[in-house]
């Protein structure tokens, strides 16, 4: 059985965040969506749970960081080619995100950009050539 990952992100405005993720290609899962949480599907194995700040606070007593000013994670997702990296980044900008808060990476065999959602969570779409994946770390050592 394949494993799934549920990425939980605190958001200030649930409706705005759900609209953003739909605009960049995620699918809404109404079975796990209510007024406190929205489930967005990236793939069969990956779900992003958008949680209101109040609901988020019921999961942990740790301080919630402000993703607009602090970074706790960089969420990297693969895309099928360079054009798809650019396409999701441009869709994010059009939907209210910010483009390239991290440097663009273009190493020939690997290409990556980044964007933020409206709350400031950083996503990094990337493409890597199938040949580089097969070659492994030796090929990656050529990265600038």
Automatic annotation (TrEMBL):
Domain Glyoxalase/fosfomycin resistance/dioxygenase residues, every copy: 7-124
Pfam family, one: Glyoxalase
The name this protein goes by in its record: Glyoxalase/fosfomycin resistance/dioxygenase domain-containing protein
């Amino acid at each position: 059985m394949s494993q799934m990952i549920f990425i939980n992100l605190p958001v200030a405005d649930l409706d705005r965040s759900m609209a953003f993720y739909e605009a960049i290609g995620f699918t809404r899962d109404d079975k796990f969506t209510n007024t406190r949480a929205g489930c967005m599907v990236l793939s069969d194995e990956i779900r992003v749970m958008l949680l209101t700040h109040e609901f988020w606070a019921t999961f942990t007593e740790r301080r919630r960081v402000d993703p607009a000013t602090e970074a706790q994670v960089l969420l990297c997702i693969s895309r099928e080619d360079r054009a798809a990296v650019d396409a999701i980044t441009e869709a994010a900008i059009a939907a209210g995100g910010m483009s390239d808060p991290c440097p663009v990476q273009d190493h020939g065999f690997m290409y990556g950009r980044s964007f933020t959602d409206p709350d400031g969570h950083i996503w990094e779409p990337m493409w890597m050539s199938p040949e580089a994946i097969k070659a492994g770390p030796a090929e990656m050592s050529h990265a600038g």
